[in-house]
Design brief:
Helix content: 25-40%
Number of domains: 1
Strand order of the largest sheet: 3-2-4-1-5-6
Order of helices and strands: EHHEHEHHHEHEE
CATH topology: Rossmann fold
Number of strands: 6
Radius of gyration: 16 Å
CATH class: Alpha Beta
Strand content: 15-25%
Distance between the termini: 36 Å
Largest sheet: 6 strands, mixed
């Protein structure tokens, strides 16, 4: 593990599964623009992706569905929960990080606007703060605290969390012992599924960026 990286979700009853889902597509995502705190709704493609997710996850034995408070995640979670006759538990700590002044910009625009800050961000520096937005370390502390809570409350059941790229990277990164630039070493596409199994020896990542249900 990298310095300062905890492993809070490692301690769970064997047999539990954590299904992490990124929300469906939005207009900004489809144009490769970064949106974190911006409360964008799903577009037409995103709503279709949410329906496909609901079909794909119907037989997974999910006992509870959690969502961030942002509408793109809630819409996705509600489609999944409806197909399972479950309610959605909204957890604000699963909201995406705030990109501050970079909200709505593309990667190339950010790199051109603030090359030094861009390099610091992509280096994985936990102390990095987005201009006018969140600090990475504070964001990860927030997400890890919420993961601790919902995993403990699950008591060995299978749960689904519908959230954002940063939340998925935090959970998967902790499970794999990744930190710094290594957190960028796997994809988190819109409406993708990522699965962590909890076994006697600790967490095992059983699926990364599964998107076959979208084809």
């Amino acid at each position: 593990m990298g310095k300062g990286v905890r492993t809070p979700i490692f301690h769970s009853p064997a047999g539990m599964r954590l299904i992490l889902v990124r929300h469906g597509d939005t207009v900004a995502n489809s144009r490769d623009r970064y949106i974190g705190s911006t409360d964008a709704a799903l577009n037409g493609d995103g709503r279709d992706q949410a329906r496909r997710l609901a079909v794909r996850l119907r037989g997974e034995g999910i006992a509870r569905v959690y969502s961030s408070a942002l509408v793109r995640a809630r819409e996705t979670a509600e489609a999944i929960a409806k197909s399972l006759a479950l309610d959605v538990d909204v957890v604000r700590e699963f909201n995406e990080l705030d990109f501050g002044e970079w909200e709505g910009l593309t990667r190339d625009e950010i790199a051109k606007l603030a090359p030094e800050h861009f390099a610091a961000w992509r280096s994985g520096d936990e102390s990095f703060r987005f201009p006018g937005g969140d600090c990475r370390a504070d964001f990860r502390t927030r997400v890890r605290g919420a993961l601790d809570r919902v995993v403990t409350d699950a008591d060995g059941c299978t749960i689904a969390i519908v959230a954002h790229v940063g939340v998925v990277r935090t959970a998967i990164g902790d499970a794999l012992g990744l930190s710094g630039p290594a957190l960028w070493s796997f994809r988190v596409d819109p409406a993708s599924i990522h699965v962590i199994h909890f076994e006697l020896g600790g967490p095992v990542v059983a699926a990364l960026n599964e998107t076959a249900h979208l084809r």
